[in-house]
Each structure stands twice: as C-alpha cells, then as structure tokens.
Amino acid sequence: MEADGPPLGHGYHNVRAGDLACVVTALEMLAPPEGLRRLVPEGDVPVQLVRWKEAAPEKYRLLYKRVGGPWLWWTRLGKSDGEIAAIIHDPRVQLFAVTDRARVEVGMLELDFRVEGECEIVFFGFIKGATGKGLGKWLMRRALQLAWVPGVERVWLHTCTTDDPRALPFYQSQGFAPFARFVEILPDPRVGGLLPQDVGSAPIIL
Question: pLDDT per residue over 41-57, tens digit each?
Fold first, then answer.
C-alpha cells in the first residue's frame, strides 16, 4: 500500500502516516530433527504446557498482548470474539499456555494444522520477564514434538523485524531454514489504539 507522492525509484515504497513497514522472514522445516522423540532429561524445568481447548477470546487476547505486545503482535487484536473463537476453538488448532510453578501464564504456543500436511507454529513466545532463561529451547522441542504428527510433512513459521531480534537466529539454530522474505506494510497498531504507543522499537510515523 503506497501513499500518493513522487516516485522514489526501484526498490523504494512510500509508507503512509499511521502505517508500519517491516521485513518478514518465513522459515520451514521439512523433516523432524534427529532424536526429536528420544527421551531427553530436562532437569528442573520451572514451566509446563497447559492446553487451552475452549479458552475465552478475552482470556486469549490478554495472554496474546502480554507475550506479543512488546513486539507489536497485532493481527488478533482487531478480531471480534467470534472471529477469534472460530480460530482457536477449531479442532485443527492447538493452543497452549506456558505456566510457571504458581500457575501464572508466562508464554504461549499456537499450532495450526488446518492446511493438510502442514503445521504452522503461529505464535511462540514468552512474556519479557521469562525470556533469556533458556526456556525457548525447551518450548521449541515441545512444539516440534506436537507438530510432527503422522501426515505432517512441513512445519513452518515466520518472524519479522518488529519481533524480538533474537527470534530469527534462534529459529535457524533450531533447524528452520528461510524460504521467503518480503516487506509488509500494515496499519500501525499503536496508532489505531490496539497497543500502547510506548511499546515496540519501530518509530511511529505520524
């Protein structure tokens, strides 16, 4: 989506006031990692996965904002309760909260099997207070164990330049390979009031 204005030359695009531009990288895995099913001692892991089969949309939004707000996750925030329920209550979508020992939600994992033969890791992450503690590898192993079920031939995910800068190298270190990159121009969720204006590292264009 481009604003009216003079041509900027090949490779340049106008970004309108109130919009946000980011580079998206999509990554895939075409076979499960070696030893994925092997029992690996995990030591004292202070978190666990809890399946949310019939989560209320408002409860879902709250965790989504706590995990993704600092990184400008926004796609689910503009959806109605009915639209969210249609996604997360679909039997082909698996939603999990990561909870600590006090049963407080500190992360989330969402897997989408709605495309035959594929699993998309749609959302994967922790709240800021739970990052940097080595839990990402644990959660990714659990995610891949759940994703690589019989019939799945491809697991994929995507990240972008508004996300945690550690996300892309982390996904690659876990065996994902980039297969596409593109520029996305979208309404800035901070301008529209979906997220506070003081979150995210990308500047607001007004």
Answer: 566 789 999 999 999 99
Token pair of 80 as six digits: 């109605």
Residues 6+ apart with CB under 8 A from 68: 74, 123, 125
Distance separating the N- and C-terminal Cα atoms of the chain: 16
CA–CA distance, 65 with 194 (Å, rounded to integer): 10
Side chain identity at residue 42, one-letter code: E
User: What's the pLDDT tens digit per position in 119-177?
Assistant: 999 999 999 888 888 899 999 999 999 999 999 999 999 999 999 999 999 999 999 99
Dist CA 113 CA 153 (whole Å): 11
- Report how far residue 87's alpha carbon sits from residue 110's, in angstroms, rounded to the nearest whole number: 10
Quote the tokens at residue 15.
């970004």
Task: Give pTM, 2 decimals.
Answer: 0.91
